Amino acid sequence: MKFVEEVVVEEFLPTVRSMLAADLRDRGFTQREVAEALGISQSAVSKYAHGEVATSDAISADERVRDLVERVGAGLATGDMSRVQALVEVEVLIRQLEDGDLLAERHREAMPELREHGGDFDVHDPESTVRTTEEVRSSVRRGLRILRNTSGFAGLVPNVGSNLVECLPDAADVEDVAAVPGRIFDVRGTATVPSDPEFGVSEHVASVLLSARAAGAAVRGALNLRYDPALIEGLHAAGYPTVEFDVEDDRSGDDTHDDEAARPGVVEAVREADPDAPFVLYQTGGFGIEPITYVLGADAPTVARIVRDHCRE
Questions:
Q1: Which of 11, 38, 144, 279 could form a disulfide with 56 if both were Cys (CB 3.0 to 4.6 A apart)?
Q2: What range(s) does the HTH cro/C1-type domain occupy (predicted)?
């Protein structure tokens, strides 16, 4: 008797780890860095490099496996993909290949008796919550990398700091929005990102994004910048609709937050303007409130690219 999990352990994992180790080495990783990225020992990495671990030609030749290795290797190399997301991506492919596919066929070869039963192994839902949240965090990381590499972005950071956010597809509150804990600040002309994106750490920008969505805007990403009429003009000239809201009509004009994350001034302005995404939202300040510009778009990288392109002009 042989379980499909044994096929995974004996054939799939050694093959994929060997392929990932080679991919990361090709990307300039040291043996120690490969070991840390894959969560294995350096001696295991050495064995993979010297072909001392048995692998499966059928698995390594599968285009889906090759695509997985390319995506995971690139994500780990750039830092866009966490080890958690890498694990989930591998797990998802394993479950897909177990479900009447490559691994199920390898299992049937080891257990011919299974052929008479058709061998359908649907044991895992690939559309898991963990996968979705990790994809959003990865998207925010990509956007942050764009901003860090954008000359002039630091000069657009307002006194209260910037934050780049992206929400889950069905976001209901700030806990469904990924952002930078502590915000992004201009430190001597350099945009400083203090830590990795997390969910539920932005109330200010998250509430603006959620309020725009409540008004019907098809957006999931947002970034706040300092207010400058020239900035608004430049973004408008680049083809992005600009919408002003009255901060005095907005009961959440600072970092306070209610359960619905509703900001009436934002909801009213966006609903009335009904702008196509991406678009620019701004307020010109009030008593004790700094004027701020917001760029909203389909996701965090889209918003970051808009700012990058503006800084290049």
A1: 11
A2: 27-48
Place of tokens 């359908």: 120
Q: Where are the alpha helices (DSSP H) in the chain?
A: 4-7, 13-26, 31-38, 42-49, 57-60, 63-78, 83-98, 102-110, 129-148, 204-214, 229-237, 264-273, 300-312
Give the whole-angstrom CA distance, residue 142 versus residue 302.
10
User: Of 80, 102, 126, which residue sits at a domain end?
Assistant: 126
What does the CA dihedral 302, 303, 305, 309 come to, rounded to 10 degrees? 130
User: Does 180 lie in the same domain as 108?
Assistant: no
- How do residues 135-190 score in pLDDT, each as one tens digit? 999 999 999 999 999 999 999 999 999 999 999 999 999 999 999 999 999 998 89
Asked if residue 123 has pLDDT above 50, the reply is no
Widest distance between CA atoms in the chain: 77
Do 138 and 119 share a structural domain?
no
Question: Among 76, 102, 126, which residue terminates a domain?
Answer: 126
Give the separation between CA 32 and CA 30, rounded to whole angstroms. 5
Q: What is the pTM of this model?
A: 0.77
Residues 147 and 97 reside in one and the same domain: no
The region, left, alpha or beta by phi > 0 then psi within -120 to 50, assigned to residue 280 is beta
- Burial class (CB within 10 angstroms; exposed 0-12, middle 13-18, buried 19+) of 195: exposed
Strands 198-199 and 279-283 turn out to be unpaired
Cα distance between residue 226 and residue 294, in whole Å: 9
**Residue pointed to by tokens 């070869």:** 109
- Rg of the chain over Cα atoms, rounded to whole angstroms, equals 24
Residue 23, domain extent: 4-126
Token pair 């620019």 in the structure block, residue: 280
